[in-house]
Design brief:
With 148 residues, the chain is of the alpha/beta class. Strands 1, 2, 3, 6, 7 and 8 form a 6-stranded mixed sheet that branches. Strands 4-5 form a two-stranded antiparallel sheet. The longest helix has 19 residues.
């Protein structure tokens, strides 16, 4: 599993020109599912995501989590996080999870965020999406399950 987490002031996602999700201050999470990924990995990532202290406290230190600041969360599926560009100029996606697994874990991840935090905005699995955001910082973190 790979996640790109961006602290944002706002974000939105559109499909066919129609807005399907929007958040204010919070976290925009791009989620890629790889071969062999599991629900246990998703659980671990959700737990860590909700506790991740990347928001500033009253002293300007990054000591607060999205839950502390009552921020919002948006999750967008992005299989291209598994692009392998080692050979040639055209990315290979051989390490990306099969669509059935990827969709199942994407939906599971979203449901776990919702169960543990409340609402979650999201993209549409498999759709051609237009995502816009106002990065706060910028502050971007990349998680890769191979590193864990």
């Amino acid at each position: 599993m790979k996640l790109v987490i961006q602290r944002v002031k706002q974000a939105e996602v559109k499909v066919d020109g129609k807005q399907i999700g929007q958040i204010g201050q919070g976290l925009l999470v791009f989620l890629g599912v790889g071969k062999g990924d599991t629900r246990e990995m998703a659980d671990k990532y959700v737990d860590k995501l909700l506790k991740l202290r990347i928001f500033a406290d009253e002293d300007g230190k990054t000591n607060l989590s999205v839950t502390d600041v009552k921020g919002e969360i948006m999750v967008v599926s992005q299989f291209t996080l598994y692009a392998d560009c080692k050979k040639g100029n055209r990315p290979s996606f051989v390490y990306a999870g099969e669509p059935e697994l990827a969709e199942e874990l994407y939906e599971y991840f979203k449901s776990r965020v919702k169960e543990n935090y409340g609402s979650v905005a999201c993209g549409e699995f498999g759709a051609d999406m237009e995502v816009s955001l106002k990065n706060d910082g910028p502050f971007t973190i990349i998680w890769d399950s191979r590193d864990w």
